[in-house]
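User: Need the bound-state model for aspartic acid:
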Amino acid sequence: MRLIVQKYGGTSVGTPERICNVARRILETQRKGCRVVAVISAMAGVTDQLVKLAKAVSPQPTERELDILLATGEGAASALTAMAVNALGGTAISVTGAQAGILTDHHHTKARIANISPKQIHEMLSEDYIVIVAGFQGQTPEGDMTTLGRGGSDLTAIALAGALNADACQIFTDVDGVFTCDPRVVLDAKKVSEIAYDEMLEMAGSGAKVMQSRAVEFAKKFGVEFEVRSTFTKRRGTITKEETPSMEDVVVRGISLDRHQAKLSIAGVRDEPGMAARIFSNIAAAHIIVDMIVQNASISGTTDVSFTIHEDELENARTILMPVIGQIGAKRLNTIAGVAKLSVVGIGMRSHSGVAARMFECMGKSGINIQLVSTSEIKIAVIIDEKDAERAAQLIHAEFGLARLLASPSATRPLA
Ligand code: ADP
Ligand code: ASP
Ligand code: MG
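Assistant: Bound-state model below.
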């Protein structure tokens, strides 16, 4: 019998009616002769609401307690889904991440999976249960609750699909699949039928929230193919898998935006070994995640170092860096919030040239200023003013001919 792991995101279980819809889909899958493990996210908005509540009682909530609180969202939604399946005549049972055998490290709120032993799930499946797993949760070896980072139910699903050696892994969400750009930003974005792990990883890592990037990393590492598709339609979605030679024919697979970034530039840094280390070790010690780093060529013995972080960390980073600037004898620190990163991704860039030139020309003609540039083998990323971000995505999307014909706009319009 085929074993299918399905994951339903927050919007998919956002109301009682939608939970019943999910229950029907799960039962349909079972009736096709499959065993089903369904990973469920918290109902839409619940995790944000819980974070807000925590901050209302404590300026810096203890992360251990935060995990216990956040895990309640997935706990509630998975129990409700099991109830809905049972009410429709099925036999479902809900389990926590710990019961599903997900063992993690101790990094509360962004724990990494260390091991999975889904013994209980195997037993329940052999007794013909539909197993409903609370997403986003794990447990330390000492038995403390952990969560897997925002969007972490994707990781629960991919990791379980790998550990259970499932025949298919389906990520159900509120859009029809992975698009050439967020369909809420570019209305004529096109659903892609397949995408390579590396492309999905770069897109997820540069703001395409449709998949958690750690989940894609896991999928690539363990070769878990997965399909992103809609909870609300029967249309086929997007398969993420190992690349095939024909995938290189597409130069640009997609465009992603990462908003709410801040740029920090340190001017007049002496061009000597150890300077960058002094700057970034202080930032790392405060657990601030640094994204893009650019160092200029040295002119008369000094250079400028720029980097980006999430704008919520800007004040913290400024406080840390001000004394460091003095210690290393740099000239000044300039900071700016309200910037965005726009990334153009495609494995075809390995064998096609001129993508950067075309992209920069398109932005230049439209008066969009590029503040920083960084590249990888399959990505070109620029930092621009956040107010230009959507327009830039739309223009570059059109420049590379990524749009679909808008004959039937309702066919892929986001639902919520
Ligand atoms: P879920 O709650 O199901 O996990 P998310 O909100 O985390 O769903 O992710 C789905 C959203 O990701 C979509 O509604 C869409 O706006 C956004 N998104 C961003 N980039 C893309 C893209 N390239 N393709 C599809 N969706 C995208
Ligand atoms: N509920 C968690 C979040 O909102 C996990 C998830 O939905 O994947 O981030
Ligand atoms: Mg998500």
